[in-house]
Amino acid sequence: MAFESGLAAVVLLAGRLLFGGLIIYQGIDHLLAPDAMAGYAEAKGVPAPKFGVVASGVLLVLAGFGLVLGVYPVLAAGALAVFFLVVTPFMHDFWAVPEDQKQDELTHFTKNVELFAASLLVLVLASQPWGYALNVGL
């Protein structure tokens, strides 16, 4: 089933703009506050934490634009899925933090699992041409 016209294309566009736009926002946040985020990453044991923050920010921005514009959407959604699969249990290990941090880490863990699931759904949808998209790299 192609999503090139009609209501499905409009709804998919809205979803792409929201999902991809918020992914872009998260990436920009990484790029604008790398020192603050690097401190958290360092506390979690990330080697080269500032590089990791900047690299993840670039990945999030590029993947987000890929979804919004329909440019290599399979690659964009796949990169997001791998990112959330790897980062989530490492950065938000709610089972291994002090009691006063458990709820915050659990909230972030759950949010990232949701983003992982959404990335998998978009990965499936990305194999079809999209309406209101550049459809580059299908």
Automatic annotation (TrEMBL):
The alphabetized UniProt keywords are: Membrane, Transmembrane, Transmembrane helix
> What domain of life does the native source organism fall in?
Archaea
- CC annotations in GO: membrane
InterPro entries in the record? DoxX
Per the record, membrane topology reads: Multi-pass membrane protein
Location of this chain's protein in the cell: Membrane
Major subcellular site = membrane
**What single Pfam family name could you report for this chain, choosing any that match?**
DoxX
Sequence intervals crossing the membrane? 7-28, 48-69, 74-95, 115-134
Q: What is this protein called?
A: Quinol oxidase
* Natural source organism: Natrinema saccharevitans
